[in-house]
Amino acid sequence: MTSAQLKVRTISPAEHLAHVEQVSSVSFLQTPAWATVKAEWRGESVGWFATDGGTESLVGSALVLYRQVPRVKRYLAYLPEGPSIDWTDPDLERWLAPLADHLKRQKAFGIRIGPAAITRRWHASTVKKAIADDALGSLRETPADVVVPEHEHVAPTLQRLGWKQLTSDGGFAAGQPQYNFHVPLVDADGTAKSEGDVLKGMNQLWRRNIKKATKAGVETSRGTRDDLADFHRVYVETAERDHFTPRPLSYFQTMWDALTAEHPDRMSLHLAHHEGDLVAATTLVQVGTHAWYSYGASTTAKRDVRGSNAVQWQMMRDALAAGATVYDMRGITDTLDPDDPHVGLIQFKAGTGGDAVEYLGEWDLPLNRPLHAAFTAYMRRRG
């Protein structure tokens, strides 16, 4: 693409979806349907347009979520894991400047973005060795197996343009995680892996647990919207056991309705039963070639039959069959300290044989500094 001037304007959900379907994948948080899921925010689809020889074409898109500042009709404009633009372009200003101009007209006092651009990768074997190395306390201190050169310019460019990276605690920020775990479903040359290839990449414990679930008689199946209530029951049990606040059933019903209306296979529910008892349940979201494990739940009873491993393996197989190139296990912290309770999560996910990946993180651009500072202080007080 040349460095022609780009224009940003509001587009319809249909135009937005058409752009999503033209690219290999965007985050499901950047689909027009996600605005329906996040109804407490005001949603807007925006598009970047290039003109060539008098013909205008849509070359980028984003879902903007607006959160109003208390008692003032001004908004934080949030683009979770977006926007969907060409982050390899050395001239990012031509993308971001018209976005800022558009959002100013929409009465935004600040912009928050989360570029879906990977900067570094660590293979599972590297993660395992780093955890055992007393000299390494975090992923960011660990030499990466892969550095993505086409994204090395993004952070310094954002800084030059006045954007500020949000600080995070070990990779977990208030928004989306900076560190995720990916299981590649294709080889380096893009050839799709077989189920045997994916299974072979797992460590011995994962393979043994999958085999144990099969031997114990665990059966996996795809659920329907009606099964969300059963999923939610186990999810609430998981929340109580793991000490987090569960979302209500209505949230998952809204998510199901919105995402499957956009594409019938956008969201799926996966269940693991043992002798008629539901022992594990998970949700999967897929946009193009990217599949995300989004929510998981398991019962305290019958944990020894390894329903969670069985249902994860089934989701990977389904994602592979649906043409996905990556199975995304979502967020991890970057800690490698064996005494940190979070390290168990990265060890569990590393057992799949995939990669820990670092994204650029979330970045803020104040458009009205006093309002932006006041809103930041307000959100900090809310926790």
Automatic annotation (TrEMBL):
Q: Does the keyword Cell wall biogenesis/degradation apply?
A: yes
The entry's family comment says:
Belongs to the FemABX family.
Name this protein carries in UniProt: Peptidoglycan bridge formation peptidyltransferase VanK-Sc
Q: Which domain of life is it from?
A: Bacteria
Q: Which UniProt keywords apply?
A: Acyltransferase, Cell shape, Cell wall biogenesis/degradation, Peptidoglycan synthesis, Transferase
InterPro entries, per this entry? Answer: Acyl_CoA_acyltransferase (IPR016181), FEMABX (IPR003447), PG_Glycine_Bridge_Synth (IPR050644)
Pfam family example for this protein? FemAB
